[in-house]
Amino acid sequence: MKQMWAPWRLEYILSLSKDKLSQDVEEKKICVFCDRAQGKPNVKNLVLYKGKKSYIILNRYPYTNGHLMVIPYRHISDFTKLTQEELKEMGLLKSKAVAALKKVYNPEGFNIGMNLGQAGGAGIKDHLHYHVVPRWLGDNNFMSVVSNTRVIMDSLENTYRKIKKAL
Predict the structure, then answer these.
(1) Of 10, 51, 54, 142, whose CA is between 20 and 30 Å from 1?
(2) Of the candidates 113, 127, 132, which has an alpha carbon nearest to the alpha carbon of residue 48?
């Protein structure tokens, strides 16, 4: 029998009820994206790169290895209220993210986009963010189809180090 290794999964399961940050978000209305933007980029906060108006972060619960997000510092949910400077820099950071992911993982394609509002599928609806998701032919394998489970091949720490170096 072959083994499947998904080290982030245990952290995710435990975080559903015990994660202090999740409790703080619920009880004190702390925005995880505003919180993560504080301080210098590091593997603990998963922030990879900081611009003047926005930053690149590794998704803690990735769809695939290298799933990044580009997030404005400003706490905002209305896409139409982004400034020209925010839009421009977020566009540049999406390009920077794609270039880094090409160097590290050589994906065959990408999904890049936003889920706006709860009805649009946003998990964090009050602070908009772009997803930059590398894709490969066949990455929707039997585990996704039969078990509704994704297999992530590398740890967040290793993924962070690889992408940080490429940026």
Answers:
(1) 10
(2) 132
- At 152 the pLDDT is 74
Task: Say yes or no to pLDDT of 74 above 90.
Answer: yes
Give the domain 7-166 fold: HIT family, subunit A (3.30.428)
Determine the Cα–Cα distance for residues 77 and 127; give it in Å rounded to an integer: 5
Residue 152 and residue 132: Cα distance in Å, rounded? 16
Is 75 annotated as catalytic?
no
User: Quick one: which of 53, 50, 52, 34 has its CA closest to 42?
Assistant: 50
Residue spans per domain, the chain: 7-166
Helices (H), 37-155: 84-105, 142-147
Write down the pTM of the prediction: 0.79
Tell me the two tokens of residue 147: 């078990």
